[in-house]
Amino acid sequence: MASICQRWFALVLLLMTVAQAKQTICQGSNHLQQKFAYEPTLSFPSKNYPHLAISYDTTSKVSRILAPSSNSAWKIVAGLCGQGFSFESTTQPNHFLRHRHLLLFVDPFVNTALYKNDACFKPVTGLADCNEVSFQSINYPDRFLRHQGYRMKLHQNDGSSLFKNDATFNIQTICQGSDHLQQKFAYEPTLSFPSKNYPNLAISYDTTSKVSKILAPSSNSAWKIVPGLCGQGFSFESTTQPNHFLRHRHLLLFVDPFVNTALYKNDACFKPVAGLADCNEVSFQSINYPDRFLRHQGYQMKLHRNDGSSLFMNDATFNI
């Protein structure tokens, strides 16, 4: 009898140990909420297709699992609906992942209750792995994001192993975030900006014409970083010609001598943001034309709107 009791006691102890171990292994929903609250940019590789991540097609705006790219980096923001979180495209600011007719798209923001509710999701412990993540819809709490035929959809959990795997994603921190960029620009006295797609060339200028181009690195491609002349962002002063600043004129970039006018100061102010083609690099948004970014085209520096193309995003992204 004593032997039987001892075996039962050992079994109960084993079950308790397993349960405790499981609790230790799984970090839980509170950990997820904290991670999403404090990680500025994340990527979500699929559990069962780990070489693919939640992304979207730039032209159709359809969300799919695709090979990792700049489109699979998401800026994590407080839920637009007041609950959970929303996922903003890092390559197309003010475009958010949202569901429409149970399919997922990356649509430009619209200030309606429907849009905001459709763009809110609650990260929960992964349905197939408690150390990964699944995404529950805020306005359809019985439905989860899942991929099917590589397309992202919003479906009810049918309890199958296939569904749970399709609805579970890894979490990857891939970007240092805009705060890191602001700090770097605030504390680095001089920087150079090699082009992402022409890494042997950097933002520079021709001494005679003052036209800004991407050129082979030289003293003209070293910029003194100063607080924005307009009171926002930053301005870039030539290190070879003091009191000459990079500024736009007629959507082209020049290095002009300082003039104490509001127009000049606004034209010489730029905001460094996460790189459109690589969130760990940098793009430069105009302060007075916030829908436009610095980019090179035909080797000349210009100020253009983001057309969403891969070419534009690469032309508008620079190393630091």
UniProtKB/TrEMBL annotation:
GO molecular function, one term: alpha-L-arabinofuranosidase activity
Residue ranges occupied by any Alpha-L-arabinofuranosidase B arabinose-binding domain in the UniProt entry: 64-171, 212-320
Keyword check for Signal: yes
InterPro entries listed in its UniProt record: AbfB_ABD, AbfB_ABD_sf
Gene3D superfamilies on file: 2.80.10.50
Signal peptide: 1-21
Family matches, as SUPFAM superfamilies: AbfB domain
Superkingdom of the organism of origin: Eukaryota
Biological processes, Gene Ontology terms: L-arabinose metabolic process
Key words of the record: Signal
Protein name (record): Alpha-L-arabinofuranosidase B arabinose-binding domain-containing protein
Annotated organism of origin: Clytia hemisphaerica
